[in-house]
UniProtKB/TrEMBL annotation:
Top-level lineage group: Eukaryota
One BP annotation, GO: endoplasmic reticulum to Golgi vesicle-mediated transport
InterPro entries in the record: cTAGE_MIA/OTOR, SH3-like_dom_sf, SH3_domain
Location of the SH3 domain: 39-101
Cited PROSITE patterns: SH3
Pfam family name, one: SH3_2
Biological classification of the source: Eukaryota, Metazoa, Chordata, Craniata, Vertebrata
Protein name: MIA2 protein
Signal peptide: 1-22
Amino acid sequence: MSRILDQRILLFIISFSASLQSTKVLSEWKKCGDLECEKAMSRVQATADYSGPDCRYLNFKTGEEIIVYSKLSRENENLWAGSKGKDFGYFPRDAVKTEEVLIREEVEVLTKETDFLCLHEDKYSFE
């Protein structure tokens, strides 16, 4: 009985840590093509397969095209955010190569808590 209780507590702790990880702010700042981060900044092509650690990340295969809408800046410049079809999320900039620059002048804005929530089938997931 004690062992089952220990396993349940361990599973609860692991589940709780995963929830905290998936709502963690990845950066306080981001660069965009406009103040609302609605304009596409560039079109890139995946140079490697990528599978992110949680639902905030965009998964893709080598050769797929991604539209970039923002780039995290200052403390975490390696992550960009973009879309592939209906999927949207963060990905490492070194897993893609730029095919076309759409916005030459970037603006830096503060991120919002909603920038780091998971989006499932057009609904936000508050964990």
